[in-house]
Amino acid sequence: MNYRHMETQAWQVLDRAHYLHPFTDHASLRQAGSRVAVRGEGVYVWDTEGDRIIDGLSGLGCVNIGYGRPELVKAAADQMQALSFCQSFFNTTHPSAVLLAEKLSQILPEGLNHVFFQSSGSEANETAVRAVRRYWDLAGKPERRVIIAREAAYHGSTHMAASLSGIPPMYGAGGDIPLPSVTHIKTAYQYRNGPGMDPEEFGILAASWLEERILEIGPDKVAAFFAEPAQSAGGALCPPMSYWPEIQRICKKYDILLVVDEVVCGFGRTGKWFGSFYYGIQPDIMQLGKGITSGYLPLSACILSDRVADLLIEEGGEWAHGFTYSGHPSCCAVALENIRIMEEENIVENAEKELIPYFRAKLETFVGHPLIGDVRSVGLMGGLEIVKNRVTREAYPYEAKIGYHCSGEALKRGLAFRANGDTMSLMPPLIITRQELDTVFEIAREALDATAVAFG
Ligand code: PLP
After folding, report:
1. What is the pLDDT of residues 160-193, one digit of tens each?
2. Which three-class secondary structure state does DSSP give residue 260?
3. Could you please report the per-residue DSSP string of 133-187?
4. What is the separation, in whole angstroms, between the first and last Cα of the chain?
5. Which long-range contacts does 418-422 make (Cβ < 8 Å, 24+ apart)?
6. If we measure between CA atoms, which residue out of 247, 299, 241 comes closest to residue 270?
7. Does residue 376 contact residue 237 with C-beta atoms inside 8 Å?
8. What dihedral do alpha carbons 122, 125, 130, 134 form, nearest 10°?
9. Is there a contact between 356 and 173 (Cβ–Cβ < 8 Å)?
10. Is 289 in the pocket of ligand 1 (CB under 6 A)?
């Protein structure tokens, strides 16, 4: 079957009949119908109508080097031809997993030298939780069970990862998540949690919420603190620079493992290779995903520091944990090639110098827009928070779904512009040009203006 010859409507009928989409209201999808994407190149995606969409989101924060790179296609195909699958369970290994683990240990913060692979960011967080549990058991402190995470966090959709996430609609009515061993603290969301404060003082205050919770629970019962360097799905929540050093100090003081979810921030999003470099974090465990392959194939990594791995390796015997696709050969080969391209083309350094100041300046032009209460960004991750009243910061009611309305207005005009709640988010590919950014912001403004009229 040649999909190009099928009408959009025919695709929509099939789509409705059988395909359950993630994070989707299927009743409204039935009415609206899906846009059917068929091709991507650079920062653009084309649909079956022949319309071109500029991808302001890098897919879902993953297509960091853009669509259609033939080198990645070749890396995957060559590996499939040579060795299409290899398990790593029974004293077996293969070159692309070994080389990727070595490469990661070279480019990550010092001391993060032991790499466990799986397929998704959610699974990387599951692995991290299992490693934390195993570590404290082996350290003779099994009573360290509680994991502290943050409100508005997103760590994935499996049972534990959803529990770590601080997004209440994910918990569902009467469900058993969040699991009782997880607790959430307020986050470094200055617009809502520290209005009017000096940002650096707010960073210290926000970090003190961690210490407060540790003391409430009892330090001997706390296992780990899980956090993203900057929160992406929470609506581009970027902490002040004082926040992370203070968090690090508190974790050290109470001997709590610091687990940093770099699934979005990793691979250049902040303008540094990892958010941990940007904010000066030294994690005990780190999760990577998405940008590790620029979204060409599914792969994630959970990296253990020497401190954690040494105990697991020396004392732990067999760690009964793993996945069929841990270290899948083609996924690892694509990740290696993706990193090679990023290094050879100085993609992160160029983004930092050439794009990020421009991106930030463009975002700042929305200060004063009648719908926008807050403008925030780190690197190429930006958020424009929609409010009903800019003076009182009153939000629109949840049911109004104003963010979704704005996304729809943008998509009609050819821009993928995401609503994270009422925050409109942009995370363009790191290879976008300034001219393409002009288009992104032009359409974003039109979409916000049209939304202001519709809700005015
Ligand atoms: N961690 C963070 C910070 C994320 O943003 C996401 C997904 O958006 C995940 C974990 C989950 O990754 P995946 O969707 O690959 O399971």
Report:
1. 999 999 988 888 755 688 999 999 999 999 999 9
2. strand
3. HHHHHHTT-TT--EEEEETT----SSHHHHHHS--GGGT-TT---S-TTEEEE--
4. 47
5. 418/56, 418/57, 420/232, 420/233, 420/234, 420/235, 420/236, 420/383, 421/235, 422/235, 422/385, 422/386, 422/387, 422/395, 422/396
6. 241
7. yes
8. 170
9. no
10. yes
Q: How far is the CA of 175 from the centre of ligand 1 (A)?
A: 21
Strand partners, 39: 46
Tens digit of each residue's pLDDT (9 = 90 or more) over 202-256: 999 999 999 999 999 999 999 999 999 999 999 999 999 999 999 999 999 999 9
Closest CA to 56 of 443, 363, 415, 424: 415
Which atom, in ligand 1's list, is nearest to the CA of 233?
A: 5
> How many angstroms does the Cα of residue 122 sit away from the middle of ligand 1?
6
pLDDT of residue 2: 53
Cis-peptide into 70, omega within 30 deg:
no
Q: 263: CA distance to ligand 1 center in Å?
A: 6
**Please, are residues 97 and 327 in contact by the beta-carbon 8 Å criterion?**
yes
pLDDT tens, position by position, 364-374: 999 999 999 99
Ligand 1 centre to CA of 370 (Å) is: 32
User: Measured from the CB, is residue 144 less than 6 Å from ligand 1?
Assistant: no
Q: Amino acid identity of 258? A: L
